[in-house]
Amino acid sequence: MTPRAIVIGASAGGVQALSRILPALPARFSIPVLVVVHVPRRRDNALVELFGAKCAVDVKEAEDKEVLGGGTIYFAPADYHLLVEGDGSISLSSEEAVNHSRPAIDVLFETAADAFGPALTGIVLTGANHDGAQGLKAIGAAGGVAIVEAPETAEVPTMPAAALEQCPSARAMSFDQITTYLQELAAP
After folding, report:
1. Looking at residue 31, what is its pLDDT?
2. Which of 81, 132, 133, 170 has a 20 to 30 Å separation from 158 between CA atoms?
3. What b/e readout covers 113-149, taking b as 16+ CB neighbours within 10 angstroms?
4. Is 130 helix (H, G, I), strand (E, B) or coil?
5. The pTM is what?
6. Catalytic residues
7. How far is CA 10 from the centre of its chain?
């Protein structure tokens, strides 16, 4: 099944990890990709500009009440949780931090699992805490595809290892395997 959306979470080392994955998406990639990276509060989110220059698909900061469009990478704004509503639209929230983070990966993953069920792919990349573990478990429980960066190759293995512990059915993959998996989703 081709997913209706892909969600990706990263923390420490995440920009480097995403730099190996997102620019590899071909221009014909038609699945929306929602990304949470732990970024400091009250800082301009330079990720959109950074990845916009590197990627063949559109890159933007997620906006409240926006309807997801294919072929677009949506980054969570600094200091806002990124959620997916039941109708597939985006919602932003300034509710309490989760796992000491806002935006939190678990919030995105859990709401996307509720919205898309088995038509969702979730990917947990490098990071130094446990954010994303419960969310990936929710994706797996909803029948979605759960992927983690192989902990042994992650810059900071804590987050992928925690996600594997919570979601043992998740597939541990190298960057090349993740990139190939995503590129195959764009195949005609």
Report:
1. 96
2. 81
3. bebbeebbbbbbbbbebbbbbbbbbbbbebebbbbbb
4. coil
5. 0.97
6. 11, 38, 131
7. 7
Which amino acid, one-letter code, is at 164?
Answer: L
Instruction: For domain 5-185, give the CATH number.
Output: 3.40.50.180
Per-residue pLDDT for 45 more than 80?
Answer: no
- The torsion region of residue 100 among left (phi > 0), alpha (psi -120 to 50) and beta comes to left
pLDDT at 151 over 70: yes
Question: 15: burial class by Cβ within 10 Å (0-12, 13-18, 19+)?
Answer: middle
User: Backbone dihedral region of 65: left (phi > 0), alpha (psi from -120 to 50 degrees) or beta?
Assistant: left
Q: At residue 39, does pLDDT exceed 90?
A: no
| Angle between the N-to-C axes of helices 14-21 and 175-185, in degrees from 0 to 180, rounded to the nearest 10 | 50
Backbone angles phi, psi at 90, to 5 degrees: -95, 145
Over 33-57, what HEC string results? Answer: EEEEECCCCCCCCCHHHHHHCCCCC
Contact 22, 30 (CB under 8 A): no
pLDDT at position 44 is 65
Do 67 and 34 meet the contact criterion of CB atoms below 8 Å apart?
Answer: no
Residue 168 main-chain phi, psi, to 5 deg: -60, -20
